[in-house]
Specification:
Elements (H helix, E strand, L loop, with lengths): L3 H9 L23 H21 L11 H9 L19 H10 L4 H27 L4 H12 L2 H5 L7 H20 L5 H15 L6 H13 L9 H30 L9 H7 L3 H8 L9 H19 L5 H18 L1 H15 L14 H25 L3 H19 L11 H8 L5 H5 L1
Helix pairs in contact: 1-2, 2-5, 2-6, 3-4, 4-5, 5-6, 5-8, 5-19, 8-9, 8-18, 9-11, 10-11, 10-18, 12-15, 13-16, 16-18, 17-18, 17-19
């Protein structure tokens, strides 16, 4: 009978049939020469930490902040993808996460469904970083262990393990997307299934959180035009591989678009939530009460409720009642762009506020404000950002694929959140890539040599 270490070895080597390419000084088989026992121990530590997080914040497992549990409840009841407690179909939230929760709710309580989904996603993220560091940096044994442990103990990823939100699942899908793209980049003549699986993972990530959509398009261009030449392949091989990736991603996303076309007669690829998210971070109340105030000011709950009530009243006065999701989404977007045009100075202040929120060293939740916890988290992320920046510079100097693949992910996601509503948790899906960059830090003497 095979033990778990042998299972890890065999799974990891399923796509490692090709010889490594020397162009980027990284192997396509990142685990064959590493310590499988180390991987299993790190996954065990990650499992214990995530179970502990779910136990500490058990009440949050059923706190439905973003209506995912309400949609999942309708799915489990056989009503379809509908708004919470109503029979009305919705496209307000992306589908992957509530569908998973809804399937598990058919046989498990809500809290267990959320915990199992988020814990499994967390373990998948740890595994993906192990593989990714092996692909990016050689030699990689101690780097893989350290990086996987860093992901296992990441404060934001641990905190959101106990919440019914998309952070954990989207982070896992994004990490494995970067792994797949790296494999494709290193070997354009690789097996077709690598490109197809990578495209499928990218499509699922887009249906988990649409902010990844620009990155998927940029990857197609990069894989087609800029991937390194292999000894037996040129532009045609790269284009064929990129096309396989794009077709697989398009098929997955088209399932959601097809559903929306049948239900709403609109082939919507994303959600009807984008307009509100744009308006939430670009309106006169936010500009005056938050963006123009000293750093650390938050939007008070009472003020937010008053603004939402005023917004609903204005929309009903202009459009009548009831208003469908698509009309409301367009109305929210128009109102946001009007606020930006009327107050460009406030918009600039809001952008700067969002940049600082996105890259804040310490999340501003009440449980993170402890006099000991907050400084420790700030120190953790300050060290991570510094090491990640050094690793990125090292990747550029060494012409590693990490500089393009990982750098583009960070740039596209961060740029998108300069415009839309943002807080620190939106950065969590970038942490695996940041940690993988940090693993590439090279001692000064070795780098000079």
């Amino acid at each position: 009978m095979l033990d778990c270490h042998e299972i890890f070895r065999r799974i990891a080597c399923l796509e490692c049939e090709e010889p490594p390419l020397s162009f980027l000084n990284a192997a396509t088989d990142p685990i064959s020469a590493t310590n499988y026992r180390g991987l299993s121990w790190v996954l065990g530590i990650a499992l214990i930490l995530r179970i502990g997080a779910c136990w500490i914040w058990a009440a949050d497992l059923t706190h439905d902040r973003d209506a995912y549990l309400g949609i999942a409840r309708n799915i489990a009841a056989g009503n379809g993808f509908c708004s919470p407690d109503t029979p009305a179909p919705t496209a307000y939230r992306p589908p992957v996460y509530p569908i998973l929760i809804g399937i598990l709710q058919c046989v498990l309580p809500v809290a267990f469904s959320v915990a199992i989904t988020n814990i499994t996603a967390g373990l998948a993220t740890v595994w993906a970083v192990w593989v990714l560091v092996g692909l990016w940096w050689q030699p990689a044994r101690w780097k893989q262990v350290a990086s996987a442990l860093a992901v296992a103990a990441d404060p934001l990823l641990l905190r959101y393990t106990a919440q019914p939100m998309t952070e954990c699942l989207f982070t896992a899908l994004t990490a494995w997307l970067v792994v797949g793209v790296t494999r494709m980049w290193l070997n354009p003549e690789g097996p077709r299934r690598t490109a197809l699986m990578t495209g499928m993972v990218g499509g699922l990530a887009a249906l988990c959180r649409p902010t990844i959509d620009p990155y998927l398009g940029i990857l197609f261009v990069c894989l087609s035009l800029f991937a390194p030449r292999s000894p037996g392949g040129g532009f045609r091989a790269r284009l064929r591989q990129a096309a396989n990736y794009a077709v697989a991603a398009a098929i997955i996303i088209s399932l959601w678009a097809g559903r929306n076309l049948v239900v709403f007669h609109v082939p919507l690829l994303t959600t009807t939530h984008g307009g509100y998210t744009l308006l939430l971070g670009n309106n006169p109340v936010f500009y005056d009460e938050v963006a123009r105030q000293p750093w650390g000011t938050v939007w008070e709950h009472e003020s937010l409720l008053r603004w939402q009530e005023m917004l609903t009243a204005d929309m009903q006065r202009e459009l009548g009642a009831p208003v469908d999701e698509f009309t409301a989404d367009r109305w929210h977007a128009r109102r946001a762009w009007a606020a930006i045009e009327r107050d460009p100075a406030g918009f600039r202040r809001a952008m700067w506020y969002r940049v600082r929120s996105f890259w804040s060293l310490a999340p501003r939740g009440p449980e993170m404000k402890h006099r000991l916890v907050s400084p420790l988290i700030s120190a953790w992320y300050a060290a991570l950002f510094f090491l990640a920046a050094c690793g990125f510079v090292s990747a550029v100097c060494r012409r590693q694929s990490a500089a393009l693949i990982g750098g583009l992910l960070i740039a596209t996601v961060a740029a998108l959140h300069v415009l839309y509503w943002t807080d620190t948790r939106m950065r969590a899906p970038l942490h695996p890539v940041l940690i993988a960059f940090a693993a590439g830090v090279t001692p000064f003497r070795r780098a000079r040599k």
